């Protein structure tokens, strides 16, 4: 094989691959399936998130990638090699947990240098690599601090540097920002993304926070009850949720159900256009910010449904309306408070809701 062939070969091999991985635990004499058959493939250099509610199997999936947990069935591959039965310290991945457990009696420098010194790395190289890492996580000048003299966000960055200094090919992060307050968490999200871009390695990120996953990820696997319900980029997950679960878990979404006839769904005295879909029973989602609220019926090639405003909530940059349809369904609408905002619907007003056909998504169930 020539060098060129070899490099294209390497580029197409997934950094991390799970083949129908199942994890069963025995709990009080009963078999519990924490992970029920997950298959996915993560590319080298990707920022990949596992997103889902507590108990859906995210940590178990990560622990199988790291090697702390052996699958009951299925295969784990790293860079094409089957590592299903390979112990954690023999895998090219490093894991950072929410409780980052820095050594409290050691200063920042010694915390980060710890792994390298354990492996008898020459002093000059330790100095170079620790210095580099502290620069990347923006902690140059704080080398002498102890963990307790630092903020939560700074401690988190020390933990990151400590993992990255070992040059792993992939970093696994299990809810690493869970202990931080909202503002700090948001700042760290941007910081993490920057660090990932700078070091260029694969990040696998576990979170139950949908906005966190949408902000940082190249792709997201949305998990529910031990299974992946959808695997796609943030925009697709948000705009075109594959299931009612995904639609509900990622932000606010409206679900409209009925029988599709000739590409039209009749809903509460109005019409919802669903192009390119077979007729029959169907559930459609539409995001609140895609809907326009108006006192007049929109004509033309749009979905248009009448209703009555049941609630208006002022939220600063936008208003949230709850609109009750004739069939009893309630639809949420977000309208931006732009300078030219034309809508000023009040509680009790009769209104028309309209949206473009491409904003209706048919979902599986
Ligand atoms: P998540 O990280 O998404 O919150 P986990 O992977 O920790 O979910 O857990 C998934 C499911 O497996 C949960 O129902 C949990 O109670 C169960 N579970 C996890 N670890 C064990 C274990 N060691 N023994 C028995 N059940 C477990
Ligand atoms: Mg967990």
Keywords:
binds adenosine-5'-diphosphate, Rossmann fold, 5-stranded antiparallel β-sheet, 365 residues, disordered N terminus, alpha+beta, 9 helices, 2 domains, binds magnesium ion, OB fold (Dihydrolipoamide Acetyltransferase, E2P)
Helices, strands, pairings?
Blueprint: H1 3-12, E1 16-27, E2 30-42, E3 47-51, H2 58-66, E4 73-78, E5 81-82, E6 93-97, H3 108-118, H4 123-136, H5 152-164, E7 170-174, H6 182-199, E8 202-207, H7 210-216, E9 219-224, E10 227-232, H8 234-239, H9 244-249, E11 254-261, E12 264-267, E13 270-273, E14 280-286, E15 292-294, E16 303-314, E17 318-325, E18 330-336, E19 350-355, E20 361-363
Parallel strand pairs: 3-8, 3-9, 6-7, 7-8
Antiparallel strand pairs: 1-2, 1-4, 4-5, 9-10, 11-12, 11-14, 12-13, 14-20, 15-19, 16-17, 16-19, 17-18
Helix pairs in contact: 3-4, 3-5, 4-5
Adenosine-5'-diphosphate binds at residues 25, 27, 32, 34, 52, 54-60.
Descriptive account of the structure:
By secondary structure, the protein is an alpha+beta fold. It folds into two domains: 14-239, Rossmann fold; 255-362, Nucleic acid-binding proteins (OB fold (Dihydrolipoamide Acetyltransferase, E2P)). 26% of the residues lie in helices and 35% in strands. It has nine helices and 20 strands. The protein has helices spanning 3-12, 58-66, 108-118, 123-136, 152-164, 182-199, 210-216, 234-239, 244-249; strands spanning 16-27, 30-42, 47-51, 73-78, 81-82, 93-97, 170-174, 202-207, 219-224, 227-232, 254-261, 264-267, 270-273, 280-286, 292-294, 303-314, 318-325, 330-336, 350-355, 361-363. The strands form four sheets. Strands 6-7-8-3-9-10 form a six-stranded mixed beta sheet, sandwiched between helices. Strand 11 (254-261) and strand 12 (264-267) form a beta hairpin. Helix 3 (108-118) packs across helix 4 and helix 4 (123-136) packs across helix 5 (152-164). The longest helix is centred in the middle third of the chain and has 18 residues, at 182-199. The protein is elongated, with a radius of gyration of 25 Å. The two termini are 48 Å apart. The relative contact order is 0.11. Residues 1-6 have low confidence and may be disordered. It binds adenosine-5'-diphosphate and magnesium ion. Adenosine-5'-diphosphate (ADP) binds next to strand 1, strand 2 and helix 2.
